[in-house]
Design a protein that fits this description.
Layout: E1 6-8, E2 10-11, E3 20-21, E4 34-36, E5 49-52, E6 61-63, H1 65-69
Parallel strand pairs: 1-6
Antiparallel strand pairs: 2-3, 4-5, 5-6
The structure holds zinc ion.
Length: 82
């Protein structure tokens, strides 16, 4: 893969536990595959939090900024399903 497309993670509606979905295949993005993009923009995507989709045949790079911004509070990020 020479270039990576950036997808926008979405917040799954109606869940008690905040759940982010891959913007490409709608799989649940595990918190264990999310990381801060501070200082080392390794994917050159210019967003603060990114998540890599773990679904087979996907592996999309997702920007989580919009989904996290949609949370009621940033603390909820700690509760994101993993
Ligand atoms: Zn995916």
């Amino acid at each position: 893969m020479t270039t990576r497309d950036l997808y926008i993670a979405t917040l799954a509606p109606g869940r008690a536990v905040p759940t982010l979905l891959c913007g490409h295949c709608n799989s649940i993005l595990s918190r264990t595959r999310m990381f801060r993009n501070d200082n080392q923009d390794r994917y050159d995507v210019g967003c603060q939090t990114i998540a890599l989709c773990s679904a087979d045949d996907c592996g999309a790079v997702n920007s989580c900024d919009a989904a996290i911004a949609a949370l009621d509070s940033p603390d909820e990020m700690k509760e994101i399903a993993s």
